[in-house]
Amino acid sequence: MDFFSSTTCFFTFLCHAINALQQRGQLLTQWNCAKPENQNIQIRIFVLSLLRLSCSGLVHTDPFSRNFQFFFSEFCVITGLRGRVKRGGKHDQGLTFFVELKASIFKELPFLRGGGIILKIIILLGGTVMAQSSSDEDTDISESEISEYEDKSYEELKSGSQNLKTSDETFTCPYCPKKRKRDYLYKELLQHASGVGQSSSQKRKARDKANHLALVKYLENDLMNVDVPSNNSKPEDESDSSVNSNDQFVWPWIGIVVNIPTRRTEDGRSVGESGSRLRDEYRIRGFNPVRVNPLWNFRGHSGTALVEFNKNWPGLDNAMAFERAYELDHHGKKDWFANCGLKSGLYAWVARANDYNMNNIYGEYLRKMGDVKTISELMEEEARRQDKLVSNLNNIIQVKNNHIKEIKVRYDETTDKMNLAMMEKDKLSQAYNEEIQKMWSSARDHCQKIFTDHEKLKMQLESQKNELELRKIELEKREAHNESERKKLAEEIEENATKNSSLQMATLEQKKSDENVMKLAEDQKRQKEQLHAKIIQLQKQLDMKQELELEIQQLKGSLSVLKHMEDDEDVEILKKVDNLQKDLRDKEQSLQDIDALNQTLIIKERESNDELQEARQALVDGVKELPSHGNVRLKRMGELDSRPFLEAMKKRYNEEDAEERASELCSLWEEYLKDPDWHPFKVIMDDNGKEKEIIRNDDEKLNGLKKELGEGAYNAVVEALSEINEHNPSGRYLTSVLWNYKQGRRATLKEGVQFLLNHWKVLKRKRGMM
């Protein structure tokens, strides 16, 4: 329905447009200050304001549509509503927004309920969104949305919607269809994508940066690198056909970067981007520079920097790739010197002879930092260095081989001598052990004989004393009967007194015998100390002998070397040979004297050892007949303790069955201990460098016992096994030794004799009390 004429509608539209422009600033200010969660409310407020401005009696007219479409389209562009609806892809949120918008319109402007304005708004908003979707290339994204758009482009590349390959080795950039260069190698495409994606130029759109960053991610993660050279050490004329071997480059390889943005500080000096930041950026792009040096003059940062690459051939590859990347981006040397107006962004190239001779700041620095050389000159210089290196290495190898041969000969000689010395040492140790055993056996027998005689005499004295006591009692009874008997009793008392004096004399003799036993024990102790002193002396003399033998071998080796070096005209070498021969004869004579002394000491040591062995055995046999109490008593080495087995069986069976089972298990493990084929030991080196045998942790029998019966039974078997291995490893039968239970060690001979004397004193004290 038309309420106004066309002219009236036109002027009315202008009035409403002027009114809307006055309120637009306030609405946009509210939008910019609103929080993200309140922006939908701002959209509704803005739409309602537009409706109020647009439909003052123009609900069904064309001016309303044009007026509302003009302002609403402007609002969608400014606020990014189209992009939010399109990029979000969240249809539920969009639908919720339309429903809320419709409810707000009906509430604020109820007169619109009967018209088709809501349908027009929805169509208009949808049309703007579709228009935005069809014109993505004309509208850019914000910097904060680059990461989100990069992920989306990366997913498109992974899905195969973009075709990169043009052949087996060449690729194309799907986001640069208008570039003249369409075919790239893998590395070139990666450098192109990195350069565009990380470009700081204001001309680059954020959408292009996001697309190229996604392309870099796709090339590095999902596409096989088919263009990487197989050998980084190739010469430049093989790795890059675009480089002529006669081209003159500045060496070490240096790149020139110009047009670096700078700004002036308050003091008038120029400052610009740091070299480390440029270096990190180039490393990310794959150019691998060593360092980037910004050039400074009296005014500050000059806007120019020199990029240093490695001095090797891979460094030249990186430098040429660096130059090609800027050439492909139309920011190379030719583009920099071309007269094409205002230039933006960085320009870069590889320094050559003409740059070296330039009369500017980077030419001056290039002359300080390097020289101008061709590729062929560098190759010839490298070949000369390699030839010289090979020659030097060959000479060193020859000298080392001769030295190794000489060392090998000396090593073989020393090894033979050491083997002989070790064999002789083993023989001496075996002989020493045999002599010690004989000494212990002899000492044991001697002590046994002494104690046997002592016991016999003791028994005789006791019997005689008892007889005298009985006679004394009988005489006292007869004394009361008659005088004659009394006289006879007096005579017998006298006789008894005489015999008592004889007994006292016998007691004194026994005391002397005990003192003799003490003296014997002291003599045995002294002999044992002398024996240990002799053993230590023997060990020292054996070490002296080995040192003399080594010195003799060294003298012989030196003598043999000097004999090979001697010359009739060299008098000093002949004198050295004579002196060495004289020293050799003296050392050999000293060695013979030490051998003779060692033999004498070994014979004496064996005799003393035999006596000690006999004394200890006699002591053990004597202690067997005494009651077992006190700190020093006999211990059967290797005897299995049955208590842990009984405790383990009590946990499973009753008292009677547990004792029977424990007895069976003890008998079984005693048979295992007697088995010489079962040897669960391993040899290790202790802290003093001596060999030591310990129980293996991987023995199946012991681990099974530990798992079945527990730690107590396991420790009892390990203790018995260790005692047998220490005292009788070959026979595997139980042996009795004197044991100091207080200190947990084997008792000394002195402790055994002291134990016997203490026991004798106790018995003597008891008899005196009787």
Automatic annotation (TrEMBL):
Coiled-coil positions: 521-597
Gene3D superfamilies: XS domain
GO biological process, one term: gene silencing by siRNA-directed DNA methylation
Domain XS: 247-357
Domain of life: Eukaryota
Ranges of residues in domain Factor of DNA methylation 1-5/IDN2: 635-766
Region span, Disordered: 226-245, 479-499
Keyword Protease tagged: no
Family matches, as Pfam families: XH, XS, zf-XS
Biased composition (Basic and acidic residues): 479-491
Domain Zinc finger-XS intervals: 173-216
Keyword annotations of the record: Coiled coil, RNA-mediated gene silencing
Annotated InterPro entries: FDM1-5/IDN2, FDM1-5/IDN2_XH, XS_domain, XS_domain_sf, Znf-XS_domain
The keyword Coiled coil belongs to this UniProt entry's keyword annotation: yes
Record's protein name: Protein INVOLVED IN DE NOVO 2
Organism encoding this protein: Phaseolus coccineus
